Amino acid sequence: MRQLVMKWWGCFVRAVILAALVSLALFFVGHSVHAGQSSSQGKVLFLDINGLNLLLQFDPNLLLIDVRTPEELTGPLGQIPQSRNVTMQEIEKNPEQFLRNKTLVLICRTGHRSLKAAQLLADHGYIVYTVNGGMKDWRQLHPPTPTPAIEAPLKKPPVPGTDDNIKKQSPQENENRQPPEKKFFDSNMGC
């Protein structure tokens, strides 16, 4: 009887292991098919400011899209010079406007609108990055450079003999004052 139980137990264990292996194989086959479908449908990837810095420096194929309104671009957060402005509304109207062979990165003020736009583009088959923290985080790492103020014109030096050059003196001091010597020859001219 014991041998029969041991034989049955061995068959049972082998059957469980075989079923687990088959289930695992089916899971991986189904998962890879599902992953292939999701990548053809697009994907949203997340990027921080340091990752964006690297892409800006080393990816010549980068297309950085700022989804904010044109008024926001002139505000205190400004705009990244390499970015192109395509508002959220423009993306909603025409989500197929971007080349698919570009590294597509979206940015906004804090990351919320760019995530929404990235999800829309992923639904249209794009693989798209969204920048966590948006321009707020960008400005913490890259403060805006102040534009140089227009300098006031230099004040011209007073011309000798004009009222600007005469200090206020009593009438008696003005009478005793000697006129400045007139130089007819400049010593630098060699005469």
Q: What low-confidence regions span 5 or more consecutive residues with pLDDT below 50?
A: 24-39
And the CATH topology of the domain at 38-141?
Oxidized Rhodanese, domain 1
N-to-C order of helices and strands: HEHEHEHEHEHH
**CATH architecture label of the domain at 38-141:** 3-Layer(aba) Sandwich
Overall pLDDT score: 77
CATH domain class name of the domain at 38-141: Alpha Beta
Q: Enumerate the strands of the largest sheet in spatial order, edge to edge or round the barrel.
A: 1-5-4-2-3
Radius of gyration: 38 Å
Q: Structural class, from helix and strand content? A: alpha/beta
Number of strands: 5
**Major beta-sheet overview:** 5 strands, parallel
Number of helices: 7
Shape: elongated
Distance between the termini: 137 Å
- How much strand content do the residues show? 5-15%
Please bin the fraction of helical residues: 40-55%
Q: Give me the CATH superfamily of the domain at 38-141.
A: Rhodanese-like domain
Describe the protein in words.
The chain has a domain at about 40-140: Rhodanese-like domain (Oxidized Rhodanese, domain 1), CATH 3.40.250.10. Helix content is about 45%, strand content about 10%. It has seven helices and five strands. Strand 4, helix 5 and strand 5 (about 125-130) form a beta-alpha-beta unit. The longest helix has about 40 residues, at about 1-40.
Describe what is shown at a glance.
The protein has 191 residues and is of the alpha/beta class.
Topology (SSEs and partners):
Blueprint: H1 2-41, E1 43-47, H2 49-58, E2 62-66, H3 70-73, E3 84-85, H4 88-93, E4 103-107, H5 112-123, E5 127-131, H6 134-141, H7 171-176
Parallel strand pairs: 1-5, 2-3, 2-4, 4-5
